[in-house]
Design brief:
Blueprint: H1 13-23, H2 25-48, E1 62-68, E2 71-77, H3 83-112, H4 116-120, H5 126-155, H6 164-167, H7 175-194, H8 197-218, E3 226-230, E4 243-250, H9 259-273, E5 277-282, E6 288-292, H10 299-308, E7 312-318, H11 322-349
Antiparallel strand pairs: 1-2, 3-7, 4-7, 5-6
Helix pairs in contact: 1-5, 2-3, 2-5, 3-5, 3-7, 3-8, 5-7, 5-11, 7-8, 7-11, 9-10
C-alpha cells in the first residue's frame, strides 16, 4: 500500500500562479486568440492601405499611375469600405474585451459560487489568491494591447494620414497599455464589491465609457492650445500632424462673431467674387431670358470683401509635439489611479464575507 506525500510547507506564490494559469487554460487560449486576430487583421489593413495617401485631407483615394507599354493613365485606388469601421471597432474594443469578458466575470463567478472558500483554506491566503488573479489579468491585458499598438504602428500608421495618432489618442502610444491596466483594475474591484458577474461587468463597462469620455473630452485643451488668426480669405499655413481644437469667425481684434452674421458675409462675398448675370434678351417667342456670364471666382475680390466686413478666422490647435506630452501626462494619471484601485482591492478582499 502506498501513501500520498503531504506537503509540509504551503505552495509558493510562483507555484500558485502557475497552477492558476494551467487550470484556467481558457485564459491562455483567449490571449493567443486576441493576439492572432489583431495581427492578421491589422496586417491585412496595412496591405490594403499600401500606396494610398492623403488627397485634399481625406483618406481613401490617391492618384496612382498605371502604364501599359508607353501609355500611362491616372487611376484612383480606395480600400474596401468595411475596413475603416472594423479597424476602429477593434482598436476601441480590444482593451475593453479582456476586462469585460474574462477578468470581471471569472473573478465574480468564483466569489458568487463561494469556491474561494476552498482556495482560502488550502494554505493560500486571501491576498495570495487575489495577487495571482491581478497579475494574470494585468499581464494578459498588457500583452494584448502592446502587441496591438506595435502592429498598428507598423502596418497602419505609415500608410495613414497625419491626424491618425490624434484620432486614436486613447488607444495608441503609451496611454493604451496604461488605460488597459486601469480597466483590469476596475474589473477586479467591481467583482470584489458586487460578487455578481453581471453587476461587475456592467459596472466595468459604465466606468470604461466614463473614463474614455473624460479623457477624450479633456485632452485637446488640457494644455493651452496655440491660437492663430488668418488673413481674410487667405489659407492658413499649418504644420502637419496638428490637432485642430476649435475654429471660429472673429474680427481683426479677436472679437467673436455670430454664426448668422458670418453666413451672411460669406454668402455676400461669394456672390461678389463669382460671375454675375450680364443682362437679358428676348427669344423668338418674346419670352425674356436671363443671360449669366461664365462662373469665375476672383480670390482677391473675395478677400477684399471679407476684409471690408472685418471677418477673419481664429484657429486653436495643438502642436504635433504635444501629442507625446499629453500621452505621458494621462498615462501617469491613469497608472496612479490603477495603483489606488489595486490597493483598494487588497483591502476589500480581507473584508469579504463568503
Amino acid at each position: 500500500m502506498t501513501t500520498t506525500e503531504i506537503r509540509k510547507s504551503p505552495p509558493s506564490f510562483k507555484e500558485l500562479l502557475w497552477s492558476y494559469t494551467t487550470r484556467h487554460r481558457q485564459l491562455l487560449v483567449s490571449v493567443i486568440g486576441f493576439v492572432v486576430t489583431e495581427i492578421i487583421w491589422f496586417a491585412f489593413v496595412g496591405y490594403e492601405f499600401r500606396n494610398i495617401r492623403t488627397t485634399a485631407g481625406f483618406l481613401g483615394s490617391a492618384p496612382l499611375t498605371r502604364c501599359t507599354g508607353s501609355a500611362c493613365t491616372t487611376v484612383l485606388k480606395a480600400p474596401p469600405p468595411f475596413i475603416g469601421p472594423i479597424t476602429d471597432l477593434l482598436i476601441y474594443a480590444l482593451p475593453a474585451i479582456w476586462a469585460l469578458v474574462f477578468v470581471a466575470p471569472s473573478l465574480a463567478r468564483e466569489l458568487e459560487s463561494k469556491s474561494v472558500r476552498f482556495s482560502w483554506t488550502q494554505a493560500a491566503t486571501r491576498k495570495q489568491w487575489l495577487a495571482v488573479r491581478i497579475i494574470s489579468g494585468l499581464f494578459a491585458a498588457l500583452v494584448i494591447v502592446v502587441i496591438e499598438v506595435l502592429v498598428v504602428s507598423r502596418w497602419i500608421s505609415p500608410h495613414s494620414y497625419t491626424a491618425e495618432s490624434w484620432h486614436w489618442f486613447l488607444f495608441t502610444g503609451v496611454l493604451a497599455p496604461a488605460f488597459a491596466l486601469l480597466l483590469v483594475a476596475i474589473a477586479i474591484l467591481s467583482a470584489l464589491l458586487w460578487k455578481k458577474p453581471i453587476a461587475a461587468l456592467l459596472t466595468t463597462a459604465i466606468l470604461f465609457g466614463a473614463v474614455a469620455l473624460a479623457i477624450t473630452a479633456t485632452y485637446p485643451t488640457l494644455l493651452s492650445p496655440k491660437t492663430i488668426i488668418s488673413g481674410p480669405g487667405s489659407p492658413l499655413s499649418l504644420p502637419p500632424g496638428i490637432l485642430i481644437v476649435s475654429q471660429s469667425s472673429v474680427t481683426k481684434t479677436g472679437v467673436k462673431l455670430s454664426s448668422t452674421y458670418t453666413n451672411q458675409v460669406l454668402n455676400t462675398c461669394s456672390q461678389l467674387a463669382t460671375g454675375r448675370p450680364s443682362g437679358i434678351q428676348s427669344n423668338q417667342t418674346g419670352v425674356t431670358e436671363q443671360i449669366i456670364a461664365p462662373s469665375t471666382f476672383n480670390p482677391s475680390k473675395y478677400a477684399s470683401c471679407l476684409e471690408s466686413h472685418d471677418l477673419y478666422t481664429l484657429l486653436r490647435y495643438q502642436q504635433p509635439y504635444r501629442f507625446w506630452e499629453l500621452q505621458w501626462i494621462y498615462s501617469a494619471m491613469t497608472l496612479g489611479v490603477t495603483a489606488v484601485l489595486v490597493a483598494l482591492s487588497f483591502m476589500a478582499v480581507d473584508r469579504i464575507e463568503i
